[in-house]
Amino acid sequence: MRAAWYEKLGNCKDVLTVGEVDLPEVGSGEIRVKVYASGVNPSDVKHRSGWGGLKMPHPRVIPHNDGGGIIDAVGEGVSPARIGERVWIYEATLSRPFGTAAEYVIVKSENAVFLPDNTEFAAGACLGVPAMTAHYSVFSDGAVTGQTILVTGGAGAVGNYAIQLAKWGGANVITTVSSPQKAEIAHAAGADYVINYKTEDVASHIEEITGKEGIDRVVEVDFANNLEMNLAVLKRNGVIVTYASDSDHQPQIPFYSLVSKNITVHYALVYVMPQTAHQAAVEDITTCLKAGILSHVIAHKFPLNEIAAAHEEVESGQVIGNLVVEIV
Q: Which of 41, 60, 99, 294 could form a disulfide with 92 if both were Cys (CB 3.0 to 4.6 A apart)?
């Protein structure tokens, strides 16, 4: 089968190879998926580059955790009725060397989730990391009906799904963006209020919007950079759920400012979320897909032989939405 892989860590153009590898065999409790689209996430790029001291987990790695395709074979203990099922895939490389940047991938049966006919494979390849992270970020503290939620970076892959899921959950959503183009994307996702943090004072605008009542929960794309603002706008007993802190990997914590409002801080990493959180995300995402109420912002699609260009675009930090490598 055709696949992309690397055998050492480093620059994408130096280490990524595209060629032929053996077709994988299906084991007990596993399924094999013919991959049509492979999602490219920052975590995939970080693992390939050796970011933060990450090591090669296997002698050869086919990258990417997320994907969309059709089940073509099942192992012992998996119903043959699943053969031919359209699915979206998550955590393909979590404990395995071979991910979705290939014509076929093997995953545990539960890591391949039914994909409704109304959702294209490229959209399915955006659900594993971005949508599941967004779901946990929005709902990790329970229902959000009637709450006011701030989503920072509302045009990003996670932020955009967070807006949509929060609105589906009955919340009032405020989001921040950095350009008019991103504002249009955030509005299209359903945000009630969109604030351009480059040109507006976010805290003052939120105070005006909420009548000085403040925010119940924050879905945070850059913990360190936005912590002071979040502390200013959060209500007592408010919640921050953060999935990144790229401006400062070791931020200083203003303990007494947090404790004075009894603020809860959660950290959202999809790969170590509790199984119950995975199940809840799968159920709600499936419900939304079937109802046709999730939109998917795909910035670019690349052919497999241009996978290095996809990785470079992720590393640029300028992506608006998701990137997908098309396999078929």
A: 99
